[in-house]
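Sequence in, structure out.
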Amino acid sequence: MRHELCGRGTPINKRHRQPDRLHIAGGLFLIVTLLLASPVLADGLDLDVIETDDLRLIYVDPFQTYLVPHVARNFHNSLQFQKITFGWTPHEKSTVILTDFSDYGNAGAGVSPYNGVSVFIAPASRTLETMPSSERMFMLMNHEMVHVANMDVANAQDNRWRRFFAGKPRQTSEHPESILYNYLTVPRLSAPRWYLEGAAVFMETWMSGGLGRAQGAYDEMAFRAADIELEWEGSETDEIGRRTDTGAVVVRVDPAYYRPTEVDLLLGTAEKARRELGWQATTSLADMTREMVEVDTAEARREAAAEGVAR
């Protein structure tokens, strides 16, 4: 099913750690391209498509329909910001696909052969993922569209090569020469991942106002809610958190989940809500953490008591 939303820009509001996300996104965009080129297969999977002048949003109806207006609005708001900030004219409209193929709650971006973002809609893991304090879809569209703008932006030479190749060829192992073709058309795609992630986190933080927290500090906050103070020793996979009163090690890094290249600080703020809606938070992050620890502790005690009765 294909829906057309009239109007330029946004259909709703005219105002305005894991495997390599760029590789995952690229693979999904290739799948989406094949699906769109094959109406029979697309109908079989019951994919729905909403299009505006700047966006092609692919989702599964009715399971993901509730997210469509919110994702589209945040996409268009971020797109306009990137256009103005970077002086960027997109090579083509972006494809955004809502996927539920993994247990991750983040997203990935790609620009070859087409601009697009894959949004993984599974709930974010509170244990293994560090998310900012701002709303998730707002953050993801801000972050990923910075990637798209940085990698798709082109100078005169890039545009000449894109005209020569009739697009932005994607590199494939079957044709090693495609690596060169890809570099000529999207050279910024070859920038180191830490550079691209650093730029995206910086811009995302700016767009959110600059208030957030890091994972390590949150660990300490959670233990303090249980009246336990921690001291830290070692670094990277050898880092441990030790109780200051007993010396017992209560935090260790599992090498299976350690991501040395992951961004460890993401920031956000509710300043816009305070300014335009007059909203004020009544629960601080520390208070919320204390409530979570108290509920989890009570649940653990109930489970322990139930096991004791069962025995």
